[in-house]
Structures are given as C-alpha cells and as structure tokens.
Write a structure and sequence with these properties.
- The strands form 2 sheets. Strands 2-1-4-3 form a 4-stranded mixed sheet. Strands 5-6-8-7 form a 4-stranded mixed sheet, with helices on one face.
- Strand 1 and strand 2 form a beta hairpin.
- It has 2 domains: 4-66, Translation initiation factor 3 (IF-3), N-terminal domain (Ubiquitin-like (UB roll), Roll); 73-155, Translation initiation factor 3 (IF-3), C-terminal domain (Translation Initiation Factor IF3, 2-Layer Sandwich), CATH 3.30.110.10.
- The chain starts with a strand and ends with a helix.
- The chain is built from 5 helices and 8 strands.
- Mean pLDDT is 83; it is low at 182-190.
- Helices cover 42% and strands 27% of the residues.
Length: 190
C-alpha cells in the first residue's frame, strides 16, 4: 500500500499528501476520500461524496450500455434435400436480414439417417454463401456440429438511415410552377 496519494477534487488544493493528511482534508470538507486510479504512481484519490461517486459511475455504465450496438442473429434452417424453390425463398429472406444489418446463421439440420448426406449439406451452404456474396461475408465456413452443419455470415455494410429531405416553401412553389408550365405546353399541342 502506498504511503502517499495524489489528492484531487473540488475546493481542495491538489497535490501529493501522506494518506493520513489526505483523510484529514476529506474529513474537514465533510466528504469521503475515494481512490480513483490505484495503478498510478502515486495513487490518485478524489475528495467527494462516495454515494454520489457510485451514482455517477452507474450512470456512465448505463450510457455505455445504451450506446453499445446490439447484434441480432437471424437463423435459416435447411434440410439436406432442400428444393430450389425453398432455397430461393430462404435466400430472399437472408438478403433482407443482411440488408437490415443482422448476422445470419444458416444451417442444415440432419434428421435420422440423413447424416449420410453431409456433402449435400455442405454444397447447399456453399451455394447459399456464394449467392449472398454481394450482401454479406462469410464469418465461418460450413462446419458440422452434432446433427447440424452451420454457416455464419455478417453483413458487408450496415445500412445508414437516410432522412428524407424537407423542402422549403420556395422550393415547393418552384416545383408547382414547373408543373403548370408542362401542363400548359401539353394543352397547346393538342
């Protein structure tokens, strides 16, 4: 344990003090001595109200959690004998999932004796990945885990929401006058 600490805080003269003197400074202010950075040399302590300090820490953690991007994983299930129509139907769903920014987990589920068709399942997933090459990139190649062969994909570019442009009243008037001019020329020709 360090014998000296760097003291910081509001209405406190900042500097390096022995621990006992730092505690006295905090007591005189009617506050607590809270260790902020224990790994610094010397450790940094702040003269503050401890409950207020804990509240601010929780508030910061909540803000970070709210800003964190949540990853959505959508699953698409195939059988080893999936037909072309079903394949295309699921392919269209996968495209929309990737365009929305979700990750994709496509898998072939082998039931009973269909496990003997592992190659068919792998070819199906590779074809699926090839078809979605424009929309996403493969994170994990087809891999057999138990009775499932799994392929993971992530979107290439996360779509950014574009706000529609609002027109000013003068721009609206210009467009209206242009429409009137075009209708007049049509009437003159007939």
């Amino acid at each position: 344990m360090a014998r000296e600490v760097r003291v910081v805080g509001e209405n406190v003269e900042q500097g390096v003090y022995p621990i006992e003197q730092a505690r006295k400074i905090a007591e005189e202010a009617g506050l607590d001595l809270v260790e902020i950075s224990p790994n610094a040399s010397p450790p940094v302590c702040k003269v503050t109200d401890y409950s207020k300090f804990k509240y601010e820490q929780k508030k910061k953690q909540k803000e970070l959690k709210a800003k964190a991007q949540k990853v959505v994983v959508k699953e698409i299930r195939f059988g080893p004998n999936t037909d072309d129509h079903d394949f295309n139907f699921k392919l269209n769903h996968a495209k929309t999932f990737l365009q929305e920014g979700a990750k994709l987990k496509a898998y072939v589920h082998f039931v009973g004796r269909t496990i003997v068709f592992k190659e068919r399942g792998e070819l199906l997933l590779l074809r699926f990945a090839k078809e979605l090459d424009d929309f996403g990139k493969v994170e994990q190649m087809p891999k057999l885990e138990g009775k499932r062969m799994i392929l993971m994909m992530s979107p290439k570019a996360v779509p950014k929401k574009i706000k529609p442009k609002t027109e000013t009243p003068s721009e609206t008037k210009k467009k209206d006058s242009e429409k009137e001019k075009t209708t007049e020329t049509v009437e003159e020709e007939s």
